Amino acid sequence: MSGLGRFAGRVLGVATIHGKERVIGPPLMKVLPLAGFTAVEGVDTDRFGAFSGEVQRKLDPMETCKAKAKHGAVASGLDLIIASEGSFGPYPPAPFISCDEEILVLYDARDGSFFHYCHVSLQTVFGGEACATWTQVRAFAERMKFPDHGLVIRSKEKWATGDAMKKGITEEGVLRQCAMQLMDQYGSCWVETDMRAMMNPTRMQVIAESAERFAQELASCCPQCDAIWFHITQALPGLPCELCGWPTESVRAYRRSCRSCNHSADVPRPDGKPKEDPQYCAQCNP
Ligand SMILES: [Zn+2]
Ligand SMILES: [Zn+2]
C-alpha cells in the first residue's frame, strides 16, 4: 500500500521499558494518521543488550533494533512497532569527544517492511572513571551532570557475573554509601553514566530530536509512486567555496530515494547555505 494511508487508524506500539514512548509517540502522531500510540508492556528490551554490561549485544545496533521491533510485535499483538537503539563512544572524526548514535526502526508486520533512521549527536553526557576517593567520585559525578543524570557504580570497569552493581543512582547519599563500601572492600570503584533514556535527559532529548526527524522522513512521499519514506540516502559533497568557487568537501545537496520504485531526486541543503567558508576549501586553505 502506498501513501500515508497505510497508517490510517492504526495504533503504534513503542517497544521500550525506559519511558521513551513519551518522546517517540507524539512526533509520529503529528505527521502520520495514526489512531494512537502505546508503550509495549512486557518487552524486556534489556535482553538485547544492556549498557551496564550484564548483557552483551550480539548483533550490530541496526540488527538489534530490528530484532527489538519484531519482538515488540509478537509481545503486543500490534502490527506497527517502533524501537530505538543507542550507541555511545568516541566520535570517529574527533575521538576526544563523545557522541551518541541513535537508531530508530519502524516495523510494519502487515507487509514485513522496516523503515529506519540514524542520527549522530555530539550532545551527550557519557563517561566512566575508576575512582579511589570520594572527592574523585564527587568530581566525576559533577562533570556528568549528576543528579539530573543517573549513575551506575560497581567494583571495576568490566562487569563479571556475581559482581555487585548499583544502577539508576540519582541521590548523593546513595552514591556516597555505595562508593565508600566498594572502596573499603576493593580500594577503588568504577563509576559511569547510566545511559538508559529515563536516567539520561540529554539522551532522551537526542531521541526526541531523532523521532521528529524520522517522522518527517517517513511522511515524505515519493513524487513518482506516492510510497512513504522518500528518504535521504546520500549526502552529496561539493558546496562551492565563497572565494574561489572550487567545490569543497561540504554537503551541497541531499539525495532522496524511493525504495519502492527507485526514483531519486536531489534536494538542496535545508539551511539553504549557498557557499562554503574559504577555511574549508582545499584550494584557499590547503
Ligand atoms: Zn576556495
Ligand atoms: Zn516511488
Describe this protein's structure:
This protein has 286 residues and is of the alpha+beta class. It has three domains: 4-124 and 200-219, Rossmann fold (3-Layer(aba) Sandwich); 128-194, Dna Ligase, domain 1 (2-Layer Sandwich), CATH 3.30.1490; 234-280, no CATH class. 25% of the residues lie in helices and 29% in strands. It has five helices and twelve strands. The protein has helices spanning 21-31, 61-76, 134-143, 172-186, 201-219, and strands at residues 11-15, 36-39, 80-91, 94-108, 113-121, 128-131, 151-154, 165-169, 189-193, 231-237, 251-257, 264-268. The strands form three sheets. A five-stranded mixed beta sheet has the order 2-1-3-4-5. It has a four-stranded antiparallel beta sheet with strand order 6-9-7-8, covered by helices on one side. Helix 1 links the parallel strand 1 (11-15) and strand 2 (36-39). The chain is flat and about 65 Å long. The mean pLDDT is 92. The structure holds zinc ion (2 copies).
